[in-house]
Amino acid sequence: MIKSFFSTILAMFCFLLLETAVFSNLTYLPAVPDFLLIITLFVSLNNGIILGETTGFVSGFLLDFLSASPLGLNALLRTILGFVFGLFNDVLNSSSILLQ
Length: 100
Prior knowledge:
By secondary structure, the chain is mainly α. Helix content is 67%, strand content 0%.
């Protein structure tokens, strides 16, 4: 679990830099994709509540430092989303490409 946590944090940091430095400066892109939220939801669906909450908090906290939003707003929202999607860990069958 610790290995997956640190690899997720590294991936989130790389996508955070890509999202804020590259995709936010593209003028022909109408909206910036939120890769941190996608990573958080993927990790929480595959690993459960604990890792979903922690990755949600870390991704929100990193995003709060690089944006103009109040400190803790993104961290709170992404922690709640990580918890809620972590509840669906045992419910959803994500072993195949097409979900049943």
